[in-house]
Amino acid sequence: MEEVAPSGVVTFLFTDIEGSTRRWEADPNTMRGALVAHDTLLNDAVLARGGYLFKHTGDGICAAFASPRSAVDAAVSAQRELKLPVRMGIATGEAERRGDDYFGAVLNRAARVMAAGHGGQILLDATSAGLLSGVDLLDLGLRQLRDIEKAVNIFQVRGDGLRSEFPPLKTLDSTPGNLRVSTTAFFGREAEIADVQTSLKAHRLVTLTGPGGVGKTRLALEVAQRSAFEYSDGVWVIELAPVGDPAAIAGAVAAALGVTQQPGMNLTDSVAAAQQGRSRLFVFDNCEHILDAAADVIEKILQRSSTVSILATSREGLRLADERIWPVPSLDIDSSATQLFAERASAVGAAITSADGLDAVAEICRRLDGIPLAIELAASRMQSMTVAELQARLHDRFRLLTGARRGLERHQTLRHAVQWSFDLLTAEEQSLLARISVFAGGFDLAGACAITGSGDELATLDLLAALVRKSLLIADRSSGQTRFSMLETIRQFADERLIDSGEAPSARAAHAHYFAAAEDAVLRLFNSPHQREAYEWLARELPNVRAAFRWAVDGDDLDTCATIAFYTALLGVCCDLYEPVMWAEELVSSAAARDHPRLVQLCAIAAQLYAVGRVDDAIGYAEMARDALDRGGYTDVPFGYEVIIGTAYHLRGEPDKTAAMVRDTITRTTGSTVLARAMLAMALTNCGAVSEAMTIVKDLPIEAETVENPQVKCLALNAYGWAHREADPKTAYEVTYRAMLVARASGNRFAESTISIGLSRLAVTHGDPLEAIDHLVLAIRNYQNSGSFLLVTGPLSMIAVLLARFESYEAAATIMGCGDMRSSRLVFPEVDSAVVHLREVLGDQTYESLTRRGAAMTTPVMVAYAFDQIERLRTALEQAQNPTPTDH
Hints:
Alpha-Beta Plaits; Rossmann fold; 8-stranded mixed β-sheet; globular; 5-stranded parallel β-sheet; alpha/beta; 42 helices
């Protein structure tokens, strides 16, 4: 019988093997065979009754039926034959079908009804029962199920061949204790729940830690609900937030349990003694404000009873023996956090259904650090705001995220939640937290000492450790060196405290000076075999240097901001990061007006604006730098990097001016001229003075081996290959390939891209067009990712040449229209040859029409088009190299 997926009002059958984990561990081979038989039997039973099996859950199935009778018949048929203990739950209601899956509250109800049962038992909800006749049902009464607000009337199916006697249902109202039933759905954290449950089996005390609002209490209660049936004497929640007096903790526990003080014992000992022999799970919620007193009571209970387990929540650990501290993470942004927001928004009448709306919600959740409290408060604002309006106001989150949320006062606003943690700090801890809020993206111990002005590293480390312990800082040791960070919500609150204290200007100035002072150490790395570490430093500290630069600008501290702009841009260009180049340009006018010593450096950096398409501006700054050099009196650009100021002329098709500028530089240079000679040879080759270029580069490969700076080394090798590309293409390929490997190993993406373009041409000469394609794709991706849309025309022009060579004429002509190709035609003569050939094959009119089509494309569209053509060409070349055998 063919499966037909029902729609509208649907009856769902959910099944699960009871104790499957234990069975897998005890005898996996037997279980594997039994599971195959289980799956076959259930599949057959569902199909025979016209059901639609839409999901396997590992040890169970989810099936949909058009009627409750069909579902019950399938369940009874399967249950009579199954050898494994399978529990089954049936529920009926409206569901929405999306693809091969279903969505709706009824699915949650079916899952919860199933989970309440035991192996061999078939349970169903009242809706299903009301639609049945001729089926023997046992009314088990109203039962409270997890995540379902209203009690559900559950019925058990009885019949020949079915067991009739079972233990009590596993519902929230069937076990002793004071665990409250949650009235809202719980999203995500399935892995976290399983891990905490495992921890509770291995450790009798597990403490969930984390900042306010991260969801410690909700996770603890969810774990308690799911674990309730493992504790015959129940789950008992001890809410400590209202307990302000440490001496009153024992009284709170005694009141919850109904324990009275015994003769000759204090109340704490009486509570502890009453737990002997009991199988109980205690949830001690919110221990942080009376930490020591809570720890004393918990320790006494654990000492007197070996059968009690305790799950605590606190901003920091209790520091007791065998305590397992379990930090609660924020919600996953793309799934659980977004689902939570959407569900809470829907509850106030603001359903979010569009893809754009969900993307905006994900961004809101990301900016709120995935903190559940913040997300719930934000979602409550959807009653009177759109998603876009909410997103635009998150910069003032502490005023925005307030609500009439019932419960603890500190959870009624985001500010109260963070303030609660802040107030529990010592004065020294509060001061440190406020000052380190100037860091963006993290910091280390040295940075913290610099901002606080402390010369005592150990004392500062102790304070940092306390803030980590109290869940206000995060310590990441994965890199081998501890790096600290804080959630943005915590950072903004701490920044407010810093401003209120009046210390913000001094802390921000200290931060800017600290990152300006890093110049020497970072440039030493840059000029060494460890250059990659300098790039990694910039990637790690970019948010900090960005903030430091802006604070220095705001404070009119030209020395500091010029230092930061120069050395970060020197590194940044090598990583395809051009933001610091803009910083340098921003400072040129002020530096010129004040005749600042770093004027040449700033102009040399601004001359790299060619990379973002501003060639004329770049040339203007290059000439400004040259004029300043002529006047003298300015700080030199280290490592011979003043030669970069002539690069923009090359992109305008004027390599002769580049050559003249570099020659002038060489006459002024007293140190190594390896880089300058390399760039001169490139320019001369492009001018057609190949013999002179070959003379200049004659010894560069040998000299390159003595250079410590990998960028200088790879550019020197590349220049040698460039000059010899026509006279000795084999040697040119080998040396250029070495250059590319040096660039790649050092992390210099800009050099790797530049060298790869030349290497692609040599690969074609070498007879390997597929390798050429790989090199060009790498360069295109790097340039596109960096936003360097002018430079991307270089590798695109070579793609067009390849396409023309392999007769993809229309695609080649379209790509030829992608932009300014003056430099490409200068560097690669075959571009002009390809244009001539395309005009001959297509005709001038068709060629012009196709290039106009290419010119109308944006760069991203052109790149996507080129990649599509590249894949077609790659496929054709691979098939030509490896033809499919044919039968004869």
